[in-house]
Inverse folding.
């Protein structure tokens, strides 16, 4: 299992704010374009992070009242599956 | 050249601002569009500037909308808050960026507080109109002609008390006076990036406590399949490519201001304006000075105001004459026919500028 997760956001600004909040809490993540197949409305940015950090990351985002769109897990073969925590 | 037209734009920027613009030109692509390095670098530059703005102006980064100038920001705010036929209260010292926009929209304006440097007059006349009922207000924080600092905190409190939304034009105050979106409860606050914030021309900021109506529609790099502009800030009000080199420079300017503190900058500007007013009075001109004044002073010379500005220009002193795009302010002060010469000090105000002004006047022999 690749054990990476994607947290998608509606705009780059929300994704950037989340990235900086997580970085300040020492949760490593990478800002990147959201895969096209995951963007229903077309175009967006997401944070990619290790699966072991997913719960703490979402906890932090909740505490900071930062809304994200969806959560996806990336499988070993690269398949992406929507998840809920 | 002794540059004393900071009310128009700050001319001598800190060296960090020039470096930041140049660096961005060489390292930044288009933010929020691609996923490759120079696009992400640009995105980072823009977001860090939003953070600098939010730290200085009591707001969240996503409440920061970048515009091309303060006028652009005011147009978004005014067209978001008001509709044709609305009754809108404004101060007696508003700039054309406010009055022309309201006029174009077709609102009825009610002018309050026409006595220069009088907080009592401003507040009592404002409260009278708020009691009568208005759709909202638009208020300058500092007059660009006379440097009159309006009692904006008290005006904000009155508006909140009467449940009236309002917009603040912080064109002359951003960078030298406290400007606070959340604690004032303003719907919007507009400011240029290129005056007191020491950024390049082509930058402006709109702080948003509400989600505005889009003034322009276009690409935002997000939710591209939607044919409506995004419902969320800041993208809703940022169609098209941002001025990334400008925003990079603006961020550098903001860092300089935060490092120095707005109080130090205001103190320096006010001291210079006070000395300047004293000099002008000794020369026998009609000078507009009083309490609640920032780093700008206007005077009526003993000749045509444009001629005086020309003569000062020939002596290496840069000032602006005429109506300063603020005929309402001149009408309130009784200088609509004569205009004034405006001396506006900036972050680099110092006694040498006053000495140079004094030498220039002695050579003009007025």
């Amino acid at each position: 299992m690749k054990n990476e997760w994607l947290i998608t956001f509606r705009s780059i600004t929300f994704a950037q704010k989340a990235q900086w909040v997580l970085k300040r809490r020492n949760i490593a993540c990478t800002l990147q374009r959201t895969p096209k197949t995951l963007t229903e409305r077309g175009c967006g940015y997401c944070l990619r992070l290790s699966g072991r950090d997913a719960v703490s990351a979402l906890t932090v985002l909740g505490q900071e009242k930062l809304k994200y769109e969806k959560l996806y897990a990336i499988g070993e073969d690269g398949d992406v599956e929507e998840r809920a925590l | 050249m002794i540059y004393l037209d900071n009310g128009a734009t700050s001319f001598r920027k800190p060296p960090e601002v020039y470096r930041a613009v140049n660096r961005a030109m060489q390292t930044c692509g288009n933010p929020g569009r691609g996923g490759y390095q120079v696009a992400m670098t640009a995105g980072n530059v823009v977001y860090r500037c939003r953070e600098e703005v939010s730290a200085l102006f009591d707001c969240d980064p996503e409440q920061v909308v970048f515009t091309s100038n303060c006028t652009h920001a005011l147009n978004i705010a005014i067209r978001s808050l008001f509709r044709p036929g609305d009754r809108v209260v404004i101060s007696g010292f508003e700039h054309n960026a406010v009055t022309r926009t309201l006029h174009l929209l077709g609102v009825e304006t009610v002018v309050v507080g026409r006595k220069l440097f009088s907080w009592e007059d401003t507040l009592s006349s404002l409260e009278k109109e708020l009691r009568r009922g208005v759709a909202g207000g638009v208020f300058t924080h500092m007059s660009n002609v006379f440097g009159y600092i309006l009692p904006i905190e008290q005006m904000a409190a009155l508006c909140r008390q009467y449940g009236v939304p309002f917009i603040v034009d912080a064109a002359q105050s951003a960078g030298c006076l406290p400007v606070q979106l959340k604690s004032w409860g303003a719907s919007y606050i507009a400011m240029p990036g290129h005056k007191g914030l020491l950024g390049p021309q082509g930058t402006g900021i709109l702080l948003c406590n509400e989600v505005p109506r889009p003034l322009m529609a276009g690409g935002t790099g997000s939710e591209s399949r939607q044919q409506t502009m995004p419902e969320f800030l800041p993208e809703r009000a940022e169609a098209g490519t941002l001025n990334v080199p400008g925003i990079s420079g603006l961020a550098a300017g903001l860092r300089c201001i935060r490092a120095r503190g707005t109080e130090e900058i205001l103190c320096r500007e006010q001291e210079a304006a006070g000395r300047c007013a004293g000099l002008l009075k000794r020369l026998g001109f009609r000078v507009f000075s009083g309490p609640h004044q920032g780093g700008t002073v206007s005077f009526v010379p003993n000749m045509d105001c444009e001629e005086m500005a020309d003569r000062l220009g020939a002596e290496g002193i840069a000032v602006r004459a005429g109506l300063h795009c603020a005929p309402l302010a001149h009408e309130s002060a009784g200088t609509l026919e004569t205009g004034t010469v405006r001396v506006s000090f900036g972050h680099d105000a110092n006694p040498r500028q006053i000495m140079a002004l004094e030498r220039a006047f002695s050579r003009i022999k007025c």
Summary: Strands of chain A lie at 4-9, 30-33, 45-50, 71-74, 80-83.
